[in-house]
Amino acid sequence: MTNTKHHLKNYRQNLSKQQGITFVGMLFVGAFIILIAITAMRIVPAYSEFMTVKKILKAMQQDPLNTMTPKEIKVAFDKRASIDYISVVSGEDLSIERTDSGATVVTIEYQVVKPLMGNVSVLMDFAARSDDK
After folding, report:
1. How far apart are CA 34 and CA 28, in angstroms?
2. In angstroms, rounded to a whole number, what is the distance separating the alpha carbons of residues 88 and 131?
3. Contact 84, 71 (CB under 8 A)
């Protein structure tokens, strides 16, 4: 009987020592998770669109850019962008340069502002070149 009494006493002591997250703590953790999820939902589409822009520039490098005029290059970009549903940039945003070796390099730099909540926004700067690896 004393052995059972001893186990019961230890059980009660262990119950009083147990700790867990409080309701307020759980609210803070939940709010933090929601904030991260909202931020990710706003940022991920912008990065996805940027990756598509990079893919278009890399594909354009396969074209004979050296023989094309800047206007033709911009039109070619616009055609590819419309196929991939790119709306953040257009061919007019491209910078077209000729290197010393005579190769044509197409670059683009742009910013995207995504509102998070209220007057808080995220500003993302993107830059890509057609000759990037």
Report:
1. 10
2. 21
3. no
* Residue 25 Cα distances to 20, 39, 55, 56, angstroms: 10, 21, 44, 47
Residue-by-residue pLDDT tens, the chain, 133 positions: 556 666 666 666 665 565 677 889 899 999 999 999 989 999 999 999 999 999 999 988 888 888 888 999 999 999 999 999 998 999 999 999 988 888 889 999 999 999 988 898 999 999 999 887 6
pTM: 0.74
Between the two ends of the chain, the Cα-to-Cα distance in Å is: 77
Question: What is the C-alpha separation between 39 and 122, in angstroms, rounded?
Answer: 9
Q: Are 114 and 122 in contact (CB under 8 A)?
A: yes
Beta carbons of 73 and 86 less than 8 angstroms apart: no
